[in-house]
Design brief:
The chain is mostly helical and 123 residues long. It is built from five helices and three strands.
Length: 123
């Protein structure tokens, strides 16, 4: 907790009114992203494609599920703007769209790890 420079007492929190609300468009985009993360297979897919580019068959094998299930989930993630593709010969490789998506997935999983293990909170 921050301390006042003069008294050593805790600094007063910033009044909520001083924080500007996100726009309706930003909230809709974030809600869409979080809705995509609320499904276990999609979260696992995003975890994998945050680390490396993978094709549908490789992803299906890693998740021990069918190519059609993985394809359906990837289509939703792509429409939501969370993954992008790159052609490599006959293969289509999937990866997390950008650093924001990779950080979002990593932070969600690190938070989950802290919840499960009881690791101390930190800021």
């Amino acid at each position: 907790m921050a301390r006042s420079e003069h008294s050593g007492a805790p600094a007063a929190p910033v009044a909520p009114a001083a924080v500007e609300l996100p726009s309706d468009g930003q909230v809709r985009a974030a809600v869409t992203a979080f809705a995509m993360l609320a499904e276990p297979t999609r979260l696992r897919l995003l975890w994998l494609v945050s680390a490396e580019e993978l094709d549908v068959s490789s992803l299906a094998a890693r998740l021990a599920t069918s190519v059609s299930i993985v394809s359906a989930h990837l289509a939703k993630l792509r429409l939501a703007g969370l993954v992008e593709t790159r052609k490599d010969g006959r293969h289509v490789l999937y990866r997390a769209r950008d650093t924001h998506v990779r950080r979002l997935i990593a932070e969600a999983m690190f938070h989950a790890d802290h919840q499960i293990t009881g690791a101390a909170d930190h800021d």
